[in-house]
Amino acid sequence: MEGHCLCGAITVKVNDSDLFSGHRRGHLCHCRNCRRVAGGVFGTNLTIEAEKVEITGEDNLTKFMDRDTTSGTPMARCFCKHCGTPIQSVTPVMKGKVVLKLGIFEKVPIPEWEAFAVRRQSWEKPLEGCIQYELLGGPGKKLLEG
Ligand SMILES: [Zn+2]
Ligand SMILES: [Zn+2]
């Protein structure tokens, strides 16, 4: 899977043979900050091992330290310093992993789960087959009731 920012200064290549092999990968996030970064009503993210991600033009990346996080641990939100395209988020909470922002890729895997489902717009439907987490997503986190 490969994509680039709006201006082309940054290219991201994901080396993972299991992206389109039938398993769901990645998640939608309805949290306020993902929405702001996405410029839309949810973010499309993929948490993945940093070693599988190859970034060309990394000098063009800049970051905003997001301190308004649920865990309280600051998260670096990285974007292209020329065109502002969101590329990835990095947090010490997830060692060795990055959260890729999937908007730059032509084709992305079917998401596995949705996070912050309580903040979904009233007119948005849950994505069929997606695990629905009330707030933070992932194993052991609280599912959305009802
Ligand atoms: Zn750019
Ligand atoms: Zn989020």
Automatic annotation (TrEMBL):
Any one Gene Ontology MF annotation carried by this entry is: carbon-sulfur lyase activity
Keyword Transport: yes or no? no
Which top-rank group of organisms is this from? Eukaryota
Cross-referenced Pfam families: GFA (PF04828)
Q: Keyword annotations for this protein?
A: Lyase, Metal-binding, Zinc
**Domain CENP-V/GFA, first and last residues per copy:** 1-124
Q: Which family does the entry's similarity section mention? A: Belongs to the Gfa family.
Please identify the protein, giving its name as recorded. CENP-V/GFA domain-containing protein
Biological classification of the source: Eukaryota, Fungi, Dikarya, Ascomycota, Pezizomycotina
